[in-house]
Each structure stands twice: as C-alpha cells, then as structure tokens.
Amino acid sequence: MLSKILILFFVIVFCGLEKGGQIFADENKSDENASSLNLSNTSDKEITKAYQIPIRDQIGAPILDILRRGLKDAILSEADLVILDMDTPGGELGVTLEIMEEIIDNLEKFDGKIITYVNDEAISAGAYIAIASSEIAFSPKSQIGAAEAVSGGGANIDSSMKRKINSYLKAKIRNYAGDYRYRSQVMAAMMDANESLIIEGEPLKTETGGLIKKPGELLTLTGVEACQEYGTPPAPLLGFGVYDSVEELMNEKYGEGQWKLEKMEINWAEETGLWLNGIAPLILSIGLVCIFVEFKTPGFGIFGVAGIILLLVFFGSKYVAGLAGQEELLVFLLGACLVLVEIFLVPGLVIPGVLGIALMMGGIFWAMVDVWPTPDFEWSMEVIRPPLWEMLQTLGLVFLFGILVSKFLPKTPIWKNLVLATTLKKPGESEEKQMSLNQLVGKQGKSISELYPIGQIEIDGVRYDARSRLGKIAKDEKVEVVKVSEFELMVKPIES
Q1: Do 55 and 63 contact (CB within 8 A), yes or no?
Q2: Is residue 126 a contact partner of residue 207, using CB atoms and an 8 Å limit?
Q3: Are 391 and 373 in contact, with CB atoms under 8 Å apart?
Q4: Which helix (DSSP H) or strand (DSSP E) does residue 138 occupy?
Q5: What is the separation of C-alpha 228 from the centre of its chain, rounded to a whole number of angstroms?
Q6: pLDDT confidence tier of residue 251, bands split at 50, 70 and 90
Q7: Any idea what DSSP says for residue 424?
Q8: Quick one: DSSP state of residue 163?
Q9: Cα 158 vs. chain centroid, distance in angstroms?
C-alpha cells in the first residue's frame, strides 16, 4: 500500500508542477501584455510582435535549451521579431556552433528577424552568436570581440590545431555574414591576433587617433565603434545602432505604439531543469537501472522509489527544455502499467510486457525528439539523429551501470540490509542461527502466500521472499529452491 501511495504521490506532484508552471507562464504573459506601454488602438496587423530571449552568463548546454524553447514560443506566438538580450563572457565552442546553426535554421522557419541586443558584453562565444543573427544592436557601454578559440579549460590550443579551427570558423563566419560588408573581416580579427583589420584601405582608429587593433592583439570593439559606418555607400562594421534599452530600440526602429514585447522569464526551477536536461542520459540510465534492480528484488523499496523519481526528473527536464509534454509521460506510464500487469497479474503471457516495454521506450524516445511547431515540419534523419544518439548514450550507460551494480552492489552493507535481509527472523533469533542463502539451494519448504510470481515461502520455520521459476504457485504448496543469485531466490513447485 505504501508503494502505491508513493507512486501516486510522485505522479501527482509532477503533473501539478507541470500544470502550475504552465499557469505561472500564462499569468506572466498576461501580466506582461496587460502592463505593456505599447498597447494602442492600432490593429494587430500594424503592430510588430517581438519576443525577447535572455542569453546570460556562460554559454553552455542550458543556454542552447533556452534559445530553442524561446524560438518555439516565438513561433507559437506568431512573433515577427526575436531579440536575443545578450550579456555573456563566452563559453563552450561546440555549444556556440550549435546555437549559431539554430539561429540560421530558424531564420528559415518564420518570416521575421533575429536581432542580438548586446546588453553589456558579447565576448568570445557571444560574438559568434551575435554574428549569426540578422542584425546587431548595442547598449552604450557594450563590448564585443576577443573570440579566440581556446580549450575547454581556457588554455591555449596547439598552434597547428588552432590554424585548423580558425580556418573552419572563418569559413562558417563567411557563410553567416551574408550581405553584411564587413562582418567576416571584423570577426576574423576578433578570433585571430595575426589577422590585420584594414577597412577601406585604412586601419581602424579610436576617437583619440590610436589603433583599435594593435598587431598581435585580438580585436574588441565598443558598441559605438561597432556601429561606425565606412565606405560608399556607408555601411556599419557590425551594428545598426546604440540604444539604452530594448524598448528604446523598438521605439526607434518600429515607432512608438507600433510594437508589443513579450519577455521570456527564466526562474531558478527552470534553470535547474535546463541543467538537468544536459545530463538527461545519465539521469535516465540510473533511473532504468534502479527500476531493474527493484524488479529483481522482492517487495518495493528504495530502488523503486529512486527509479520513479529519476524518471520523473528526466521527463521534467525535457518538459522545461521544450522537448516533452504530458503526452510523452502518459505514453511512458501506460507502458509501465502494462509491464506491471505482465509481472504481477498474467506472468508468462508476454504480450503485455512486450507492448509495455515498446511504449516505455517510445515515450522516452518521443521526449527526446525536437519537434518544431511549424506547418512545414517534416520527420527526417536530421530530426531523429540527436535522440538516437541520446538513446545510444543511455543504453551504453545502462549497460555499464548494470555491470557495476551486479558486481559491486551485492558486496555493500546497503545491499545486505535491503536485499539479503529479506529473510524474516523469529523474535530474538541471532544472526549466527540464520541460514546462509547460498545453502538454501535444494532445500524444500512451502509457500505461505501466492507466488505470482513473487511471494513468500517458509523453510525450517524461517520466512523468505521468493520468486516462482515459471508461472503461478498457489498458497500452501510444497516448493524447492532451485537457484540463488545476488538478486533473487527462485523456487519451483514439488509434484505431489
């Protein structure tokens, strides 16, 4: 009964949090729209709808999840414009390239722009992301640049490898630069200290006449410098203007009362969920191993509770990341129910178990697929490849953890307390008088409950949790122990 209550509790909590998060998000949207200074009598067709996504702190996997979820929300809200509100000192190069690809791909998914507003800093990885967007704007005290590729720990990369990386990145930047006259050249000087920066035949200089980029130094520009125009016709280095705020940018670019701005808010719970999504294969694999151990041990205990919690955390992190909804969780739970039916109600029937496992795996895989809310979305290998890779990672970890659990867990005190102590001692019976489980093979006793396939038997006055080797064993039948492993005591009925 306790196990059923625990399972029901965790399901209710998960669904409640999910629903509560949705209500909270809806309230935020409603409050923001109601309090907007830009509501006017102008028809919706004349109003520019903008969606603001925060790009803050170190660039890592959670930032990619934030961007992906924000872009999906922008598409669902039929936004005309996405603004990346950026303040970052840099981060992981691999994730940065994924974000750049995400921006470029999504420019094709809706008829709008992606504008980066450099709200203080776009250093290193931030500069790459800004370059990939449609347009760039700056705050008065902003900076952008210093985008040299370094190792994950911040150390310098071998010179030969750096040349290869720089060559690859420069080609990427040229593709992203498009029709912007100076973007690729400026970005090359930001990422390579040996790259010269000559604009229209002249080196760039500060207002006081000094060189903006000195030989052997990486280029870093202020917002004002990045918006300076050169050539004929005049074209800015990177940005189209300097503004005190996003609201001022919208007023200047689209006119007062001609726009609506919806801001994506990230709270601590979402930040935690996004971080957990980054280690989703680890969470899922440990959860599955815990469930496996629970099925291989009598009763319902800590392994089952831990497995359920970890699986709910997995689905919760996918929900926060904008990958999973309630449907995926319900499919998984339906599959789990069918597996339980196979184990406890109709053992040996096979069909419920096979169908249940298929639904569980399907729910997990569905939660990993990145489905975009666009009319032209199509299933392809590009869509399926990431979840396949994540599933392979999970299966690999399950295999590894399974080996470690089977080898080392039975030797630990916790295992002896939780599993080997399934024998029920008589009151006052000492440990020395208890029979070792390994000595039980070949012993005969009787079932004191139905084994369907798990129940209890009694041998020489001592009760044990046991599992039927095949099919159901009724109460008060004679049984014989045929096998003892680290995980279970297996018995068969004795023919009368």
Answers
A1: yes
A2: no
A3: no
A4: strand 135-138
A5: 40
A6: very high
A7: B
A8: H
A9: 32
**What mean pLDDT comes out for the span 270-292?**
76
Is 129's pLDDT higher than 50?
yes
pTM of the model: 0.61
**Tokens coding 383:** 């869509």
Checking if the pLDDT of 412 tops 90, the result is: no
List the one residue out of 148, 64, 58, 145 whose CA is nearest residue 101. 64
**Pairing assessment for the beta strands 48-56 and 259-263 based on DSSP bridges:** parallel
Domains assigned to the chain: 45-263 (3.90.226.10), 275-413 (no CATH), 426-493 (2.40.50.140)
Q: What tokens were used for 19?
A: 């629903």
- The angle that helices 61-76 and 93-106 make with each other, rounded to 10 degrees, is 10
Q: What percent of the chain has pLDDT over 90?
A: 17
Beta carbons of 64 and 274 less than 8 angstroms apart: no
183-198 average pLDDT score: 88
Q: What is the bridge-based pairing of β-strands 489-493 and 478-484?
A: antiparallel
CA–CA dist 303, 300 (Å, integer): 8
Token pair, residue 123, equals 């250093």
Q: State the Cα–Cα distance between residues 355 and 342, nearest whole angstrom.
A: 10
